[in-house]
């Protein structure tokens, strides 16, 4: 049994291991998974992402966590929290996000996992606010954002996506620790 930081009903959340690279690369190189991003990711970009997440975790006790099913310890992707510092009037912030393997889509894992991460953010980390950002065309993620009761704050042009006409118009949602 894996040593999880916390669990939800069906999911376990943990820090990243070097051995996760291949499984995450399979997700990051899938065009359907990455359709709301500028491009799929290379294996090197995937390794760099895992390294950044490990660094964030050691610094903050949070990151976009590696997520497994409790029933089979199957790696399904990531759900978690990440520091955001790109140029925007709401940064620095802590963002909630997810990226799951297509075989795990449609099971409610993103919603279940995001709720568990918000609970961790507010009860364990005592954060005051968590935000979520998505391109306006990313209806699947916006649906999850609404299900976890985040409130739409505004629409904005994402500075890191300004070269991508389909992706640059984004929405910002937030939820406060009440």
Please explain how this structure is put together:
- This protein is of the alpha+beta class and 178 residues long.
- The protein has a domain at 6-127: Aminopeptidase (3-Layer(aba) Sandwich), CATH 3.40.630.30.
- The chain contains four helices and eight strands.
- A five-stranded antiparallel β-sheet has the order 1-2-3-4-5, sandwiched between helices.
- Strand 3 (64-69) and strand 4 (75-84) form a beta hairpin.
- The model has no long low-confidence stretch (mean pLDDT 96).
Task: State the gist of this model.
Helix 1 packs across helix 2. This protein has a domain at 6-127: Aminopeptidase (3-Layer(aba) Sandwich), CATH 3.40.630. The longest helix has 18 residues, at 43-60.
List the helices and strands and how they pair.
Elements lengths: L5 E2 L3 E4 L6 H8 L14 H18 L3 E6 L5 E10 L8 E8 L8 H16 L4 E7 L3 H9 L3 E7 L11 E8 L2
Antiparallel strand pairs: 1-2, 2-3, 3-4, 4-5, 6-8, 7-8
Helix pairs in contact: 1-2
What is the typical, i.e. mean, pLDDT? 96
User: What is the CATH C-level name of the domain at 6-127?
Assistant: Alpha Beta
In the sheet with the most strands, the strands line up as 1-2-3-4-5
Our measurement of the CA-to-CA distance between the termini, rounded to an integer number of angstroms, reads: 34 Å
Q: Strand fraction band?
A: 25-35%
Gross morphology = globular
Instruction: Report the sheet with the most strands, covering strand number, pairing sense and barrel closure.
Output: 5 strands, antiparallel
Specify the structural class: alpha+beta
Radius of gyration: 15 Å
**Record field, number of beta strands:** 8
The topology string of helices and strands comes to EEHHEEEHEHEE
Low-confidence stretches: none
Which architecture of the domain at 6-127 per CATH?
Answer: 3-Layer(aba) Sandwich
Quaternary structure? single chain
Share of residues in helices: 25-40%
Provide the CATH topology of the domain at 6-127.
Answer: Aminopeptidase
The DSSP helix count reads: 4
CATH superfamily of the domain at 6-127: Gcn5-related N-acetyltransferase (GNAT)
């Amino acid at each position: 049994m894996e040593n999880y930081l916390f669990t939800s009903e069906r999911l376990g959340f943990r820090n990243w291991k070097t051995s996760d690279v291949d499984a995450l690369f399979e997700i990051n190189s899938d065009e359907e998974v990455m359709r709301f991003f500028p491009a799929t990711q290379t294996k090197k970009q995937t390794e760099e992402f895992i390294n950044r997440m490990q660094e964030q975790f050691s610094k903050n006790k949070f990151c976009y966590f590696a997520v497994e099913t409790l029933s089979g310890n199957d790696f399904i992707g990531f759900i978690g929290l990440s520091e955001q510092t790109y140029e925007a009037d709401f940064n620095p912030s802590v963002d909630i996000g997810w990226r799951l393997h297509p075989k795990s889509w449609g099971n409610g894992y993103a919603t279940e996992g995001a709720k568990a991460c918000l609970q961790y953010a507010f009860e364990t980390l005592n954060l005051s606010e968590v935000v979520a950002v998505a391109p306006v065309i990313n209806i699947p993620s916006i649906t999850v954002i609404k299900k976890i009761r985040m409130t739409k704050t505004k629409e904005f042009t994402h500075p890191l996506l300004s070269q991508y006409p389909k992706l640059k118009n984004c929405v910002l949602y937030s939820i406060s620790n009440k």
